[in-house]
Amino acid sequence: LITSGSFPRPVNQTRPDTLAWPKTFGFGKPVTTQQLTRLDTDVRPDGKGLPAGSGTARQGKPIYAAKCASCHGPTGVEGPNDQLVIIKGLTDPAAKAKNKVIGNYWPYATTVFDYIKRAMPFNQPGSLSDPEVYSLTAFLLHANGIIKETDVMNAQTLPNIQMPNRGSFVPDDRLSTPAVR
Amino acid sequence: LITSGSFPRPVNQTRPDTLAWPKTFGFGKPVTTQQLTRLDTDVRPDGKGLPAGSGTARQGKPIYAAKCASCHGPTGVEGPNDQLVIIKGLTDPAAKAKNKVIGNYWPYATTVFDYIKRAMPFNQPGSLSDPEVYSLTAFLLHANGIIKETDVMNAQTLPNIQMPNRGSFVPDDRLSTPAVR
Amino acid sequence: ATAAVVLAQTAHGKAFQAGISRSEWVSPEDPTKVLGVPPGLVGTRSPHVRLAKLPSEISSRTPLQDLFGTITPSDLHFERHHNGVPAIDPARYELVIHGMVARPTTFTLADLKRFPSVSRICFLECSGNYRGQDDGKIAPQQICGLTSQSEWTGVKLSTLFREVGVDPKSTWFLAEGGDSAVMTRSIPTSKGWEDAILAYAQNGEAVRPEQGYPVRLLLPGWEGNANVKWLRRLELSDQPYHTRQETSKYTEAIGGGKIRQFSFVMDARSIITYPAYPAKVEKGWIEIRGIAWSGRGKIARVEVSVNAGKTWQTAELQEPVLDKAHVVFRYLWHWNGQPTEIMSRAVDETDYTQPTLKELVAARGGNMGYHLNPITAWSLQPDGQVLFKAT
Amino acid sequence: ATAAVVLAQTAHGKAFQAGISRSEWVSPEDPTKVLGVPPGLVGTRSPHVRLAKLPSEISSRTPLQDLFGTITPSDLHFERHHNGVPAIDPARYELVIHGMVARPTTFTLADLKRFPSVSRICFLECSGNYRGQDDGKIAPQQICGLTSQSEWTGVKLSTLFREVGVDPKSTWFLAEGGDSAVMTRSIPTSKGWEDAILAYAQNGEAVRPEQGYPVRLLLPGWEGNANVKWLRRLELSDQPYHTRQETSKYTEAIGGGKIRQFSFVMDARSIITYPAYPAKVEKGWIEIRGIAWSGRGKIARVEVSVNAGKTWQTAELQEPVLDKAHVVFRYLWHWNGQPTEIMSRAVDETDYTQPTLKELVAARGGNMGYHLNPITAWSLQPDGQVLFKAT
Ligand code: HEC
Ligand code: HEC
Ligand SMILES: [Ca+2]
Ligand SMILES: [Ca+2]
Ligand SMILES: [Ca+2]
Ligand SMILES: [Ca+2]
Ligand SMILES: [Ca+2]
Ligand SMILES: [Ca+2]
Ligand SMILES: [Co+2]
Ligand SMILES: [Co+2]
Fold first, then answer.
1. Are residues D79 and D204 in the same domain?
2. Which end of chain B is less packed: N or C, by CB atoms within 10 Å?
């Protein structure tokens, strides 16, 4: 599992060449609340950053049909763009190996919200309201068999979703050795 | 005076990285006589490279008027392009310092032939016949007070012209020392 | 030389005035007899030199087989972006640094340029940089053209960390782009203290739009995607964000049901760029040439085999051998015209040795994916054709 | 992602298909809300970045004050040519080597590329590279923009000397260009054995037409004019030819009626490129930046004065410090807003120290001319203007 301990915690090192520097150069201006309201929209797995609002898969269904289906297919598997929903009952090993989507690959449900909000729809990025993003997130989680159609997704519930594949992710183990890994 | 001894005579060094190389790689083809006839038109101060043919200042005068005067002026001093002939009787030191032309600056007369043949007229480079170049060379040497109007310039006479400024040229003396020179 | 210039302008005035492309000029039979083009505002390529990236829908590849030395011309630097190249107005550009910092600060482009600066030559490489093809008819550009090298100039991220007072407890930061993917990656704060750069210049001039104009994150040796372009925000944190790029993408199955995440470093790699498809060669002396690089540090040596991997010889490396940089290698060889396979393998200063594809896939439990850096073999045919062969 | 691309092509199809210049695009208010430009064939500069050489009738100068790091973008490399840039067809290109050689040989461009190759980063500089101006309103581009730096690749001339069997008695060779000046210079054969290169590539790609396409002579550290471009012929000899370029031009009066000839090496030099005219500065912390170089070898150190030459401090040099190459120096300084003069001087590994203009002219018997490498001072005005001042 990836933890913050997976990477070395850096000491706030002082570079030798900075010893003669002033404490600060004073270039730049303090960040304003307005700037952060506009820019700081990211969402962490612990839910930090999730906005107000909520949505359900049922509410997400018509939004998906109107704004997403043209690229991802009516049920999220047909494309032409990225497959979003698990294809069930695959037997061919090659097809199974490629069947890596939200429901069986993504470690955190918060990522679905974060990504849709920042980048989708591809041709109208940044155009969705927060309730729309909650609803679409709920829709995709439901379509992937993670939640029920009526489960309400909001800042409290979304971080609590347990994604089935989360335990598979491990930190990088290559650098302690010259071995091929 | 510049002599071949002014620069270190190199030993035909063998680079260490070439020890395992074949004697020759064999890329390229032998040079043909036709190629050298076309390309090897340079002229050395000792006269090597001077072609057959000849000319006098008197013969050069109309050629100069027709092909050169438009850029270098009717008498070679008016421009608009490079001054070719000494301006006599200058008193202003700044003007005198800039009055550096064939007759008072160039160390070898062969250079006049070589350069006109390869590069002039500027707008029709490479268009002159060898007798024309001999004639123009004679014309400019005469205009600069070096030879008589009827002196014949050819492969024998041109290398023997003594240019007044030749003794002023010295080899580079900077590199034996970190001093500013 | 006024008259000369008047004449020159008669012939070439348009080029001189308007910077007309040299491609509109035809080479004369004897160029020594035609007055040339006068000095200009911006130079051009010879119309006889045709160089281009190879674009797909999502990336564009550097023509490695057509290049020399180690610097990639900026207009041939590989591209990989997720929602296209944004057109950013530098006057409106701002970089915000906030989160676990004492002084949340917003910097203009001019602010960033006032800080102490640094330049370094290093490579960038997309961690999805491998492609094979069964008929062997692929060039280095297709195989691994998602790597390029520039001299980057900018401000050390550690300088800005110091300026804003990064909390010593911060372990990760989020880097966010101003493109329409609003690209985000979580980066260990330690890399920021170590050698990360906010680059505003590339090969002497402003960073090109395709490479992140006006400012990109540069993480020497780390996978391209993490080097966030069009950088607009850094948020210092005590945990990673698990963004889409670092979960759904840029993670790789390594066997036993495990998926490797945050695999930043690019392993050592090399490729012979000459002779390579589509070049044809003659028997006789051939200088085998290529590039080698490692995200772990310096290349220690490159070994070349001319007998399908049976024996290996050490190639010559072009100095200076820089840290986390493409280095040119060469090996002089006499080909007797018999079919054979030639290949190169890089060894870096950590002793990591570039593997074959089989070794790599075996080490990853049979999986392909990101971070594939296999030895590339070239099969020399009796007719001089040079075909790719997977190892 | 076919559909996405269809959409992208609707918006940007022309750019994708025709490589349309980015300068035709307008920066949107919020670039995160507009799908960007898809991957392309050849990159472009941002329309907000305006970079150009400064052409005169006979040369064109590199905008040193606008550049970063040490590599000059090839299209901004300075130009100096005598009868214009020829348009040479590489298929018809031939290099002839003859004279005092055992095997007079003609090489095609392909032949030259087959030989063992070499790459190196080094500067070029015209020995006429100095200009002052009384009102001080000139930028580094005007003062000394006739220097640029590239990574050059080609074949060592010594490799070809070996191939054709140069007579050990040869002391000079003639280098001849294929332009309409049929430019010629006499070069000591020792330089050919030492480190001369016939370069066919520059910054990763073919040498640009303005820099000698397809092949130029490269004499690291030696005055630009001797680095004959569009090279078509080398004739080995036992004496110099005294061509027009090395007699009428590129010679300098040094006092006592003497004229220095064959003064090839470029002496050590530096210039502060920031702050420099036309930049304006504010009081406070300023990173003084510039480049230094020497034709004699490596830069040992650069010293900076911020009090009109009264005292000097050692600047930081950006690694790697290469032989006969531009190196970046930096000096962090707090300006109190009072008028002062700042300046830099380069010291190279031979202990040669860059002089003032007065020292230089005095050493040459009062003469100006070629090889002027004086310290350049910048006078900081109370209003932040930065004006050139001759030393
Ligand atoms: C115009 C085409 C288009 C539309 C409309 C569109 N998408 Fe996408 N979508 C894409 C493309 C292309 C990608 C892949 C982007 C990349 O590779 O970075 C993508 C990726 C995604 C992903 C990530 C898939 C993965 O496995 O990483 C999600 C989730 C997603 N889209 C959801 C949506 C939702 C929800 C909507 C509607 C609100 C939507 N998309 C509308 C084209 C589209
Ligand atoms: C169209 C203009 C033009 C014409 C016509 C022309 N020249 Fe020139 N000439 C020039 C220019 C320009 C230069 C300087 C070239 C350079 O700087 O390399 C020059 C340089 C020279 C020089 C070298 C001067 C020096 O001091 O280095 C000589 C000699 C010369 N020309 C002779 C001639 C002769 C002889 C002719 C006629 C056959 C001729 N020129 C016709 C433009 C012209
Ligand atoms: Ca946040
Ligand atoms: Ca000759
Ligand atoms: Ca041009
Ligand atoms: Ca990775
Ligand atoms: Ca483009
Ligand atoms: Ca000189
Ligand atoms: Co003029
Ligand atoms: Co597709």
1. yes
2. N
Give the number of other CB atoms < 10 A from CB of residue C39.
24
Q: What is the residue-wise DSSP string for B69-127?
A: HHHH-TTSSS-SS---SPPTT--SHHHHHH---TTTT-S-THHHHHHHHHH-STTSTT-
Q: Which of D10, D29, D35, D281 to mutate to test the interface with A (most CBs of A within 10 A)?
A: D35
Question: Which CATH class for the B46-162 domain?
Answer: mainly alpha
For residue A80, give the amino acid letter. P
pLDDT tens digits, C305-351: 999 999 999 999 999 999 999 999 999 999 999 999 999 999 999 99
Residue C180: inside a domain: yes
Cα D179 to Cα D82, D84, D113, D156, D165: the distances in Å are 9, 7, 22, 23, 27
Q: Is residue D255 part of a domain?
A: no
- Work out the number of other CB atoms within 10 angstroms of the CB of residue C314: 12
Task: Tell me which DSSP letter residue A13 carries.
Answer: P
Same domain, D294 and D230: no
D291 and D212, same domain (yes or no): no
Single residue among D50, D71, D87 that ends a domain in this structure = D50
Contact A80 D316 (CB under 8 A): no
Using one digit for the tens of pLDDT, what is the confidence trace for A92-128? Answer: 988 888 899 999 999 999 999 999 999 999 999 999 9
Same domain, D223 and D100: yes
Nearest to C350 among A9, A31, A178 (CB): A178
Q: In this structure, are C353 and C244 located in the same domain?
A: no
Ligand 1 centroid to A67 CA: how many Å? 10
Report domain A51-166's class: mainly alpha
Domain CATH code at residue D316: 2.60.40.650
Where does the pLDDT of residue D72 fall: very low under 50, low under 70, confident under 90, or very high at 90 and above? very high
**Interchain pair C332, B20: CB under 8 A:** yes
